[in-house]
Amino acid sequence: MPIIIYNSLLAYVINMEEIMKIAIPVDDGNVCVSFGRTPYFMLYDTDNNESRFINNSAANSQGGAGIKAAQIIVDNNADVLITPRCGQNAAEVLIAANVKIYKALNNSIEENLTEFKNDKLSILTEIHAGFHGDRGR
Amino acid sequence: MVTGEDKMKIAVLSGKGGTGKTFISVNLTFVAGNSNYIDCDVEEPNGHLYFKPKILKKEKIYEKIPQVDKERCNGCRKCVEFCKFNALAYIKDNVFVFEDICHSCGGCSLICPEKAILEKDKEIGEVQEGVFKDSKIYTGILNTGEETGVSIIKKLLTNANNKSYTFIDCPPGSSCSVMESIKDADYCILVAEPTLFGVHNFNMVYNLVKLFDKPFGAVLNKCLDGENPAEEFCNEKKIKILCKIPFEHELGKVNSNAEIASVKNEKYHNLFSSLLKTIQEEAGK
Q1: How far is residue A78 from each of residues A71, A99, B224, measured CA to CA in Å?
Q2: How far apart are CA B102 and CA B191, in angstroms?
Q3: 3-state secondary structure at position B169
Q4: Could you tell me the pTM of the whole model?
């Protein structure tokens, strides 16, 4: 039976039996605090329990890193993103692509995957406005 | 009539905000008379508060934002790859445009092989033209929430003619909007205050005017007795100190009442007249 999760922002229909690709921003073996500027993404496949790592080419962008990083997640066909935080523009891209965004529990990749599989992670509801600063204009 | 040779564009910049750019440019405009005052601090223009100019003209300023023709787009994503600001994304056969991120460079529209990207106007602010006695007062206003006022500054500076003097009241900092403001200046006045923070940002505009190879000098504002880190910095870098303005209760009061110090007190009129003369001499070197 699918579980339907509701909150003020999003409603996800999750079927844990489905094959899913999970993306997590990672940095030195841990979950990275930044989504847009994380050095790598880990892509975990629930089908074969395999993971691979990709470079985040958005990390060094002058601006709009979140948008580009979200594009990378979408282009790699991730269904789920587990991240400590996510900016507004990135969320817009991810939501448009039906990528479900979950809040990372802590910085352990393994624990977050386990908790996700046990359906213990909550949906990321705090979408921040971005850390845009001056962008050197 | 003044000839082209006699016209002089003087930019006033400081790095740190609240150092006295507007105070100095407003007073120089007043003592010079028959000048242009151009408020390029488009995020919070305040020179008009002193002049209370009679507004003659208002003009809206627009920027170009890409608009994708879905019928023509074949999803090649060249535009997404091209945009260095990451203002475009391609999701589910649609190009997403992030208007706030877009710098209106027009590149995506140019490179689209299918000619699927058109441009639409987006209002970002306005330019006001007013008069104060025989001087022209130009004010740029950037709408709240807009990212950059560079196009407003460009438009403002097209007015820097027809008068012997144009005083350009720059935005704080040393980023694109400041570079745009000083680009065509004949002389730069760097305003400094006697704080370490002030000196830190003063150093940034000092490097900027050197990079632009502009003649420049410093005005030390808010001077108190005792040590002055800004003065030490100027001496160390051999920067010409054009004048020192004391930190006085009267000046604070006059400024906070949005009055022009040179109007209120002969002493300040003399100070700014003498500063103007020094600038003329320095710029003539």
Answers
A1: 10, 7, 62
A2: 33
A3: strand
A4: 0.75
